[in-house]
Amino acid sequence: MKLKQLATVAALAVTGSAFAANADLGVLTGATTDKSFGDFFSTAEGAFSDTFTFSLLSTQTVNGSTAASGIGNYFVVLLQGTNTVATDATPASFSFAGLSAGSYILQIVGTNAGANSFYGGSVSAVTAVPEPESYAMMLAGLGAIGFIAGRRRMKG
Predict the structure, then answer these.
(1) What is the reported pTM?
(2) Given Cys at both, which of 2, 39, 117, 119 links 21, Cβ 3.0 to 4.6 Å?
(3) pLDDT digits (tens, 9 = 90+) for 31-61
(4) Helix or strand holding residue 155 (H, E)
(5) All structural domains of the chain
(6) How far apart are CA 121 and CA 8, in angstroms?
(7) What is the C-alpha to C-alpha distance for residues 19 and 121, in angstroms, rounded to an integer?
């Protein structure tokens, strides 16, 4: 388990309900740090569904991870409005690529099996970096424009 996951879960356990379920995580950008989320259950409540909203300003990949204690069969659902964008049954580490700008809902669905159970996690966005081929195409296009402009100057 990653150190960041352990730290998030430990903080959640120590502070009780420091992370509120059904919270707004704000805008995720490639320049920001991870946003934390989670929930603490003092009694066995059975099935639960927590939602965390966030926004993207451009096309990005959203990565996240979770860790839990006393939570069974939980998974991650990504929604845009009421439409399911993706589902990941391995919430320990999840990734949703190519998400366009807009508002999203990260839904954690599972079963709380006992008292003092909890889960915690973090999510972040990564802006896509252009491939080297993209730069090569751009330079070739600029070279072609320069060549055409130079020939027109010679004719005139």
Answers:
(1) 0.69
(2) 39
(3) 666 899 999 888 887 889 999 999 999 889 9
(4) helix 132-155
(5) 3-129 (2.60.120.380)
(6) 6
(7) 10
